[in-house]
Amino acid sequence: MIVRLQKYLAKAGVASRRKSEEFILNGRISVNGVVVNELGFKVDEEADIVEFDGKEVREEKRFIYIAFNKPVGCVTTVRDQFGRKTILDYVKNIEERIYPVGRLDYDTSGLLILTNDGDLTYRLTHPKHNVDKTYIVKVDRVPSKKAISEFEKGIVIDGYKTAPAKINVIKKLEKGAVAEIVIHEGRNRQVRKMCNAVGCKVLSLKRIAIGNLVIGNLKKGEYRYLNENEILYLKNL
Ligand code: URA
Predict the structure, then answer these.
(1) Domain of 83, in residue numbers
(2) C-alpha of residue 28 to centroid of ligand 1, in Å
(3) How many whole angstroms separate alpha carbon 168 and alpha carbon 189?
(4) Residues 114, 162: one domain?
(5) 72, 106, 135, 145: least buried by Cβ within 10 Å?
(6) What gap in Å lies between CA 87 and CA 2, rounded to an integer?
(7) Distance of CA 105 from the midpoint of ligand 1 (Å)
(8) CATH number of the domain bearing residue 18
(9) CATH (domain of 184)
(10) Are residues 162 and 118 in the same domain?
(11) pLDDT tens for each residue of 154-189
(12) Distance, CA of 5 to CA of 16 (rounded, Å)
């Protein structure tokens, strides 16, 4: 990111922004070997070399980890060419450039992890790391015994057989049912397609857990920072 020099110095812990401005005006700061004593000067956080009294000042990259309850009607990106709501309409005032780990459909709600830790994102989304994802689904009919066993055996969708998944009916409704589904792949619209393939139409879909990390009582559109144990847990998955 391109930031003002005094902001860079403050973020790197040299001094407050005001004090950093003094250092700049006093000629104690150089950028790429040249003294800068202009307050509007901007630096590239990744590329420029900033020195204070001849000693390099490096910003520590701060990793952040957020659990977000994505509402329906929000795209899992930080920008949308059609002007739809994005995660950044809900998760505000965060300086770091965060992005979602995996995705949820526009019409799916629930738990989404947001981070700037590319390494964790890679590991959590890589197909070889079989992280369970738990969904609560409302379907238009009660899944038959056959449907349940097909889920457990794997279902061919888009020419590919899904890995064994679990479906557990938790409530029968007047019309349809509520079920818990656990899958550990993350193919495009996978739960919807699996339900369709066994004759059930998805009426609503919500992700409630990623591994042991649960959405808890986060309200729709709300987010919270993960605690140390949760971060450690995800890193060790
Ligand atoms: N499966 C789906 O069909 N949609 C999602 O958003 C997530 C899993």
Answers:
(1) 61-131+216-237
(2) 54
(3) 19
(4) no
(5) 145
(6) 23
(7) 6
(8) 3.10.290.10
(9) 3.30.70.1560
(10) no
(11) 999 999 999 999 999 999 999 999 999 999 888 899
(12) 12
